[in-house]
Specification:
By secondary structure, this protein is α/β, with parallel strands linked by helices. It has 3 domains: 166 residues, Pyruvate-ferredoxin oxidoreductase, PFOR, domain III (Pyruvate-ferredoxin Oxidoreductase, domain 3), CATH 3.40.920.10; 174 residues, Rossmann fold (3-Layer(aba) Sandwich), CATH 3.40.50.970; 106 residues, Rossmann fold, CATH 3.40.50.920. It is 38% helix and 20% strand. It contains 18 helices and 20 strands. The strands form 4 sheets. A 7-stranded mixed sheet has the order 9-8-10-11-13-12-18, with helices on both faces. It has a 6-stranded mixed sheet with strand order 2-3-1-4-5-6, with helices on both faces. A 5-stranded mixed sheet has the order 15-17-16-19-20, sandwiched between helices. Helix 17 links the parallel strand 19 and strand 20. Helix 5 runs antiparallel to helix 6 and helix 7 packs parallel to helix 12.
Length: 558
């Protein structure tokens, strides 16, 4: 994109990199720009090499990119590691104390402009001046962030003023951004922010979790809203306790959420089966990261699809959503709660570190009048004797809450009869399995169809799911510049699949290429299993980094 710039801030954990990156990103959004933030960090409190990359443009940006236009290094390794990634006219802003042998380096006397922890504010001032940002906007954003800390505000303002003055005299606006269009106020949110917001708007009342990157910011965000919204957030002693707490809360009538990642979800699998047998609604967010075991705990991957699809012993229905944008995180979070309640089943939201931590500029969500899940208000009228697991044509039985009526609500993790009592009647066992599985047909009737964009009669169709959406859409635009007809088919729901929604598009394309963030091509395997269709080629990434438009283009060209 000719109007886009890629700004990368680099340094060690503990240098305030995220703080200055957040302030810069928010200033850009306030200025009317579109952003895509990629956070890359190591699993340590201090030290290591971290980056906060902001791709910015007055036009819409949906993905990260590889070439760096402005590199701001708070330490020497940033220059060493990323100098080769500079665009032809890229520049490096670096502390003059760093002995960097770099032709494109602009040494800055940060230690003269600010002291101690305020050096990162000086870096913010220099970068803002280089980009030609409205410094009044930057100052306002900073005041909002530190407004309650009088001494901190004063020192930050002093550092910002000194840095912008120095930059105006020495580097000026050397990489000015194109003017941004006039826009109404927008929100700057990550995927995790939007998931939390969507859950709260859908009627969430209880969230249980054990801290695990990259999902932890969902419950911590909800905890901040807990008192005003009536949401209870519980940090459990382990993941087994977390999912069982959520099931207990849901059984009692509180719409419930569990957040985790692959390693934590491995401990929850028995609880998933319990939800399937007891027909208890629960929403589970699995923020993917590279495994196996602890793997790369702060990096990204799409390698848990098959795990989540098959997690739990026995056979029971489930649905899996895989949002591809911050906006989809909000809307699919709501949809997950509605579907879980309606079908009395576990429903999954499959995201990953990239989308979880990626800030974007989004239009405010219209939440006025949105319906909420309220199982305590929607109790069906039931004449005795009450049968919690009554065999019905759609598999969904009437659900009453314990203590909410004169009826006894019986639940058991063993196979049971229609009332809920344990049974070993094998004929009844078969009927109960079929009853539960009939709910899958109801789920299929509500599946979100894959989104098709680009050319309707493509010679190349790029198939993707989840967070790869933005990179694939931009890659398709780049490929069309070569006079190729290119389409994109993005799945934001990966289970159940309804072949009638997409098989025509797959057969129409001359070549179908799947793009995934794993080594096996798990979604392509699922497509083949469910439809018999085999993609022609795969573009796979599993080094812990998200796909970029460039990586997709390289893979698509073979």
């Amino acid at each position: 994109m000719r109007n886009a710039l890629n700004i990368v801030l680099g340094g060690e954990a503990g240098q305030g990199l995220v703080t200055v990156g957040h302030l810069l990103a928010k200033s850009l959004v306030r200025g009317g720009y579109s952003i895509c933030v990629t956070q890359s960090y190591q699993s340590r409190i201090r030290g290591g090499h971290n980056t906060f990359a902001i791709r910015v443009s007055p036009d819409d940006v949906q993905a990260p990119c590889e070439a760096i236009d402005v590199l701001a290094g708070l330490d020497a390794p940033t220059v060493t590691l990323h100098e080769s990634e500079l665009s032809p006219d890229g520049m490096v802003i670096v502390d003059e104390a760093v002995k960097a042998d770099c032709a494109k380096c602009v040494p800055v006397p940060f230690r003269e402009l600010a002291t101690g922890i305020y050096v990162n504010t000086a870096a913010l001032g220099v970068v803002a001046q280089v980009l030609g940002l409205d410094l009044a906007v930057v100052r306002q954003v900073m005041l909002e962030a530190f407004g309650k800390k009088v001494e901190t505000v004063a020192e930050n303002e002093k550092a910002l003023e000194a840095a912008t003055k120095w930059a105006a005299e020495n580097v000026a606006a050397t990489r000015p951004l194109p003017p941004a269009p006039a826009r109404s106020a927008r929100l700057m949110m990550t995927g995790n922010d939007a998931l939390a917001f969507g859950a709260a708007s859908a009627g969430l009342r209880f969230c249980a979790f054990y801290p695990m990157t990259p999902s932890t910011s969902i419950p911590t965000t909800l905890a901040g809203w807990g008192e005003s919204l009536g949401i209870v957030v519980e940090q459990a002693e382990d993941e087994i306790a977390a999912i069982n707490m959520a099931l207990g809360a849901s059984y009692a009538g509180a719409p419930s959420l569990v957040t985790t990642s692959g390693g934590g979800f491995a401990l929850m699998v028995e609880g998933v089966s319990l939800a399937g047998m007891t027909e208890t609604p629960v929403v589970i967010v699995v923020g993917q990261r590279p495994g196996p075991a602890t793997g790369l705990p702060t990096r990204t991957e799409q390698a848990d699809l098959e795990f989540v699809l098959h997690a739990g012993h026995g056979e029971f229905p489930r649905a899996i959503f895989a949002p591809g944008s911050v906006e989809e995180c909000f809307h699919l979070s709501r949809r997950a709660f509605e579907l879980a309640e309606r079908c009395q089943s576990p429903v999954f939201l499959l995201t990953d570190q990239f989308l979880a931590d990626s800030y974007r500029a989004v239009e405010p969500f219209a939440i006025e009048g949105l319906p909420q899940v309220r199982p305590w208000e929607e109790a069906p009228a039931v004449k005795g004797p009450y049968r919690r697991y009554a065999i019905t044509s759609d598999g969904v039985s009437p659900r009453l809450l314990p203590g909410g009526s004169e009826h006894l609500v019986v639940v058991d993790s063993d196979e049971h009869d229609e009332v809920g009592h344990i049974t070993e009647d094998l004929t009844l066992r078969k009927a109960m399995v079929e009853k539960r599985l009939r709910k899958l047909e109801g789920m299929r009737g509500e599946v979100v169809p894959p989104e098709h964009t680009g050319d309707g009669d493509p010679e190349l169709l790029l198939v993707c799911w989840g967070s790869t959406k933005g990179s694939v859409v931009e890659a398709a635009e780049m490929l069309r510049a070569d006079a190729r007809r290119v389409g994109v088919l993005h799945f934001s729901q990966v289970w159940p699949l309804v072949p009638e929604q997409f098989m025509g598009l797959l057969h129409k394309a001359r070549e179908v290429v799947s793009v995934e963030g794993n080594a096996f091509g798990q979604f392509a395997r699922l497509l083949r299993r469910e439809t018999g269709f085999e993609v022609h080629r795969q573009v796979l990434r599993y080094d812990g980094l998200p796909h970029t438009p460039e990586s997709v283009v390289r893979g698509s060209r073979g």
